[in-house]
Specification:
The protein has 631 residues and is of the alpha/beta class. The protein is built from 26 helices and 17 strands. Helix 16 runs parallel beside helix 18. The two termini are 44 Å apart.
């Protein structure tokens, strides 16, 4: 390991360095981030872009006493390395290893757990106010990206912060623009000037001199705003009550350090909330990531000297790709279709749709609430909106889902990607709750395709309905089922008795159908592919209940209020009494790790399902001697 970074075990060590040593340290840190992600996989472009900013923040502020709140957390690998986790980076996003996001249980330097965007300003503001209430002099810093600033929650927090009285700095990490060298030099000078005590004092003196002459004071104020607005986009944030500083080059430590030192002094003199605008470049320092930051946003393992390469054998088609192809095909067949995404074009498989149907594609930014109500308005006008959204992100628009879509019974299709466990991203991104939180809403239906073919077919079925329908499907590929070429759907609200067996019936929801079928071979059990968590196919359920002595439900979702609970409610409503074993995700947050291994640990693979059934219903299996346990 290089000489400087190997001696940094905490930010206190970093603060012992001279200013001249920070540039070579940043170079070492960037190389270490690149090497770590290449070995383990993870987020790369965004982390390469925040190296200098991370160094500067920990160098100027007295962390962890001063609180750093990183928005989302995609850019926190340099922060993790500098805060005592350097030697654990090889375990990043792996089971038992460190998280890819800030996590309070992991380090005192992770002051707030973040993985959904636009929460940092709210959290940092509350921490600043808590410090004031407790009589503490610490500072709070929110680091938020330009994408996260598109969310309404960020502006709600800005609005509150502007009238609150806490030592708060908001750093806008803007990586969607660049600064040419001449402008960069000018902005460095302006940023240091406007963050200095002289500028602040001059403003205060001017206010004192002119306060008794309101017309002159108002004129001076307007002149200041407009003059400042000519060289920096200050007006918006200053209207919120912030002192705006920047934009400055986020890779220039000679600009960052003195500017942050000046801002810290302003906070110490209770000069109100401060707003620093820094401009960074995704993938900074690694040419391949600079050229294609999207491809290098979250790569798997790769050789940094070679870059990303195509796999030797073509990978299986993912559910996301199935959705993307269906969306294009259905849009070609029906001009009413509108595609909507809250800033997840690539993740939701909508790149080709945008290319082919740009007038019917809407990326509304990181604004899930707006996305859902936007879809409702389109549906009111006779359009057929399809909202492509991760299961975990739809949670953020629950009120809009109920009041703006379901209450008005509008035909909006929700394509819920990342349903169930998601692997390396862990609990914050898992789609564990969608069945439970959707099926309790009137007018709402929830489809659970078992494979790629059913995903395409059930999307078509959902699109045909005149009420809201969600189709949930997991991250990654399925079993490789061939997709139909057409757009025909499957019967609405109907499942299928897939395997005939004896005494025990396993009711599978979604992709766990396939381990359920494997388990049933050893159990001699029947298997039903239920396909719909709402409405439950009561005809099929009644038939299964009347011909079997026990029911087992299997789902990759939470047990409380999930599909198994729906089966029990339906049995009760039908007056059918027989034992039910529910298998699904436990009442705990499932951490990051390999999805297949996690499912095995939770007993949701074929051996686990068989083992659970044998444990619960041994008497029902005694009549089947010699049945082999699935290996």
């Amino acid at each position: 390991m290089s000489s400087l970074l190997s001696h940094i075990d905490s930010p206190a060590d970093l603060r012992q360095l001279s200013r001249q040593q920070l540039r070579p340290l940043a170079d070492e840190l960037r190389s270490y981030v690149l090497d770590s992600v290449a070995r383990s996989g993870g987020h790369l472009s965004s982390n390469l872009g925040t190296v200098e900013l991370t160094v500067a923040l920990h160098y100027v502020f007295n962390t962890p006493e001063d609180r750093l709140v990183w928005d989302v957390g995609h850019q926190t690998y340099p922060h993790k390395i500098l805060t005592g986790r350097r030697d654990r980076m090889h375990s990043l996003r792996q089971q038992g290893g460190i998280s890819g996001f800030p996590r309070r249980e992991e380090s005192e330097y992770d002051t707030f757990g973040t993985a959904h965007s636009s929460t940092s300003i709210s959290a940092a503001l509350s921490m600043a106010l808590a410090a004031k209430i407790k009589g503490e002099s610490r500072h709070s810093v929110a680091i938020i990206g330009d994408g996260a600033m598109t969310a309404g929650m960020a502006f709600e927090a800005l609005n509150n912060a502007g009238v609150a009285d806490g030592r708060l700095l908001v750093v806008l990490n803007d990586n969607d623009m660049s600064i040419s060298p001449p402008v960069g030099a000018l902005n460095r000078y302006l940023a240091q000037l406007m963050s200095g005590q002289f500028y602040a004092a001059a403003k205060n003196v001017g206010k004192q001199v002119l306060k008794n002459a309101p017309p002159l004071f108002e004129l001076a104020k307007r002149l200041e705003e407009h003059a400042k607005g000519m060289v920096v986009p200050a007006t918006l944030f200053e209207k919120f009550g912030f002192n705006y500083i920047g934009p400055i080059d986020g890779h220039d430590l000679d600009s960052l350090i003195p500017t942050l030192e000046n801002i810290r002094s302003l906070l110490d003199t209770d000069s109100g909330p401060q707003f620093l605008h820094v401009v960074t470049r995704k993938g900074q320092g690694y040419k391949l990531a600079e050229a294609d930051p999207v491809a290098y946003h979250g790569p798997g393992k790769f050789d940094p000297a070679v870059g990303l390469t195509k796999p030797a054998t073509p990978p299986k088609t993912t559910f996301t790709q199935v959705f993307g192809q269906w969306l294009c095909d259905m849009a070609a067949a029906d001009p009413r279709l509108i595609g909507i995404t809250p800033a997840m074009r690539e993740g939701s498989g909508m790149v080709e749709f945008e290319r082919r149907f740009p007038a019917r594609y809407f990326d509304v930014g990181i604004a899930e609430q707006h996305a859902v109500t936007f879809a409702a308005g389109l549906a009111c006008e006779g359009m057929k909106p399809v909202v492509a959204i991760y299961s975990t992100f739809l949670q953020r628009a629950y009120d809009q889902l109920i009041h703006d879509v379901a209450l008005q019974n509008l035909p909006v299709v929700f394509a819920l990607d990342r349903a169930g466990l998601v692997g390396a991203d862990g609990a914050t991104h898992a789609g564990a709750y969608d069945i439970a939180y959707l099926r309790c809403i009137p007018n709402m239906a929830v489809a659970c395709p078992a494979d790629e073919a059913e995903c395409r077919q059930l999307l078509s079925t959902a699109f045909e309905q005149n009420h809201p329908v969600a189709v949930r499907y997991p991250r990654g590929a399925g079993v490789g089922a061939a997709q139909p070429a057409g757009l025909e759907g499957l019967p609405y609200g109907k499942g299928e008795w897939t395997r005939k067996g004896r005494r025990i019936a396993i009711l599978a929801f979604g992709t766990l159908l396939h381990p359920a079928l494997a388990a049933a071979q050893g159990l001699g059990a029947s298997v039903a592919n239920m396909r719909w968590a709402k409405p439950i196919d009561t005809d099929l359920l009644r038939e299964l209940a009347q011909q079997h002595e026990a029911i087992v439900t299997v789902e990759e979702g939470c047990l409380q209020g999930g599909a198994g609970a729906a089966v029990m409610e339906a049995l009760h409503a039908e007056g059918l009494a027989l034992p039910v074993l529910q298998l699904g995700l436990p009442d705990e947050f499932v951490e990051h790790g390999d999805p297949a291994r996690l499912l095995s640990m939770l007993g949701l693979d074929a051996p686990g399902i068989e083992r659970s059934v044998r444990t619960r219903f041994p008497d029902l299996l005694e009549a089947n001697p010699g049945l082999k346990v699935v290996a």
